[in-house]
Write a structure and sequence with these properties.
Layout lengths: L15 E3 L6 E3 L1 E4 L10 H13 L4 E3 L10 H13 L8 E6 L14 H15 L4 E6 L8 H13 L3 E7 L3 H13 L4 E7 L11 H7 L3 E5 L35 H16 L4 H10 L6 E4 L4 H8 L9 H11 L9
Parallel strand pairs: 3-4, 3-10, 4-5, 5-6, 6-7, 7-8, 8-9, 9-10
Antiparallel strand pairs: 1-2
Helix pairs in contact: 1-2, 2-3, 3-4, 4-5, 7-10
């Protein structure tokens, strides 16, 4: 039987928020395809997660050209899922992609040059089968390309109709300020800024997060669970098969320190008192900041996705709870905002 999206997808518990000073609303929880949607993953499970997300009000799907593995495969698989299951529903979706990290061999497959961005968006549109992206990001400042060159490429991408909005990700504050000013002057202001943000990664609070707010730009957080560290998975150390147990990946064994494990256990006690899982509380903690538009979650199953969506049942904190959380975090060796 063909998949038919739920007629109740906007009447459930999903909450939406305007993105900065724009007229575009995003769901408070967005689905990222960084992991679990590549060639090495189960396509049927990926399909079920996209269907469940859409049925439950997640309208924003976050991609990048290098997501996989293999690079590009998340876009290709997402395109296949769209073509098979979502014909006629494109206008109900916000689909974003990015370019700027290593993607293909040679001197032009990496970085933030005009050459790379123009080639990248054309490749990404072909892989997904889309006519345009709702949001297209410069995935990073590469440290070499003048910001003006990168921004002009993004401006032209919007003017060519290949994207509706511009996004920035992981830019140093001084470079982001140049970018914001140039984009605004060109009549294509930056819609949204994306960066890593969690209880254990808070550097953005005084810099990129505040700057985005001052510029009338939305902010979307990735890795809000610190690559799984802010879940009950690590309450008793590093389990076999976890991300930290692998030799590759963004969460390494030496990052799972004794002070973090101790903090995770104490945070879990607060979560239990709130009738939440630790993951749910960690997501709610990021969303408590009015400057945050949305959080990007990753999921490996429909059950995990459903658990994360239940975060929205309780996203407020008492002052006492916030004070307890801050005391716990003060014991952890993490870089705090200056």
């Amino acid at each position: 039987m063909d998949y038919i999206p739920s007629e109740n997808r906007y009447t459930g518990e999903m909450l939406y928020k305007y993105c900065g000073k724009s007229g575009l609303m995003l769901p408070k929880i967005s689905l990222g395809l960084w992991h679990n949607f590549g060639d090495v993953d189960d396509f049927d499970v990926a399909t079920d997660m996209i269907k469940y997300a859409f049925d439950n009000g997640i309208t924003h799907f976050d991609l990048a050209n290098n997501y996989g593995p293999s690079p590009g495969s998340a876009e290709s698989n997402f395109g296949k899922i769209l073509k098979t299951n979502f014909q006629g529903y494109r206008d109900e979706m916000i689909i974003s992609s990015k370019a700027g990290h290593a993607m293909w061999p040679g001197p032009y497959g990496d970085g933030s040059s005009r050459k790379n961005l123009m080639a990248s968006i054309d490749q990404s549109l072909r892989r997904t089968g889309l006519e345009y992206f709702d949001i297209f990001y410069s995935h990073r400042y590469d440290g070499v390309t003048p910001v003006e060159e990168t921004m002009q490429a993004l401006i032209d991408i919007v003017k060519q109709g290949k994207a509706l909005y511009i996004g920035l990700s992981k830019y140093p504050t001084d470079k982001a300020k140049i970018a914001y000013d140039m984009l605004k002057a060109a009549g294509t202001p930056c819609l949204i800024y994306q960066d890593r943000y969690s209880m254990f990664t808070r550097e953005v609070e005084a810099g990129p997060l505040q700057l985005a707010h001052d510029q009338g730009c939305g902010f979307i957080a990735f890795s809000p669970l610190a690559q799984g560290l802010l879940t009950n998975k690590y309450l008793h150390g590093i389990p076999e098969g976890s991300r930290a147990a692998r030799s590759t990946g963004f969460l390494q064994r030496d990052q799972v320190t004794d002070d973090k494990i101790a903090a995770v256990r104490k945070l879990n006690e607060i979560a239990e008192q709130r009738n939440q899982s630790l993951a749910q509380m960690a997501l709610a903690w990021v969303l408590k900041d009015e400057r945050v538009t949305s959080v990007i979650i990753g999921a490996s199953s429909v059950n995990q996705l459903a658990d994360n969506l239940s975060t929205l049942d309780c996203i407020s904190f008492s002052s006492e709870e916030l004070e307890m959380i801050e005391r716990i975090l003060s014991t952890v060796n993490i870089q705090m905002p200056k």
